[in-house]
Amino acid sequence: MNTLAIGLDLHSTDDLIEQVKRGLPPSVFDQLRVELGLAAETLADLAGVSTRTLARRKKKAQRLAPDTSERLVRFARLYEIATDTLGGEEEARHWLKTPKTALGGHTPLDYADTELGAREVENLLGRLAYGVFV
Predict the structure, then answer these.
(1) 101-127: b or e for each residue (b if 16 or more CB lie within 10 Å)?
(2) pLDDT in tens, 38-66
(3) Is the Cβ–Cβ distance between 82 and 97 less than 8 Å?
(4) Predicted TM-score of the model (pTM)
């Protein structure tokens, strides 16, 4: 397993789980923000953390909270799936930020603010990969 979208070199799912439980470094937030092409405020809202908290953690070299870390991993996973499914990073960024009728008019990133929503976004990407009309 290798989660490049968040700048971590991972060897296994167990490794990722342990890192999420400990809290990821704030640099993960910055890396994912760049990969997704989002403003810091937008990704912070999606991740459920304030930009002030992020700034404080960066300044003090503190790790992110486990729930914030898990959300960032969720968005990175969707970005990687979308990149593979849609054939490129730019296509994935555009798709993730564009409202979808199949998601009730929400963008995939907005819809993925919960694990259940993220699973539905993954299902939608799976249908696209297999040419199922959505």
Answers:
(1) eebeebbbbbbbbeeebbebbbebbee
(2) 999 999 999 999 999 998 888 888 999 99
(3) no
(4) 0.89
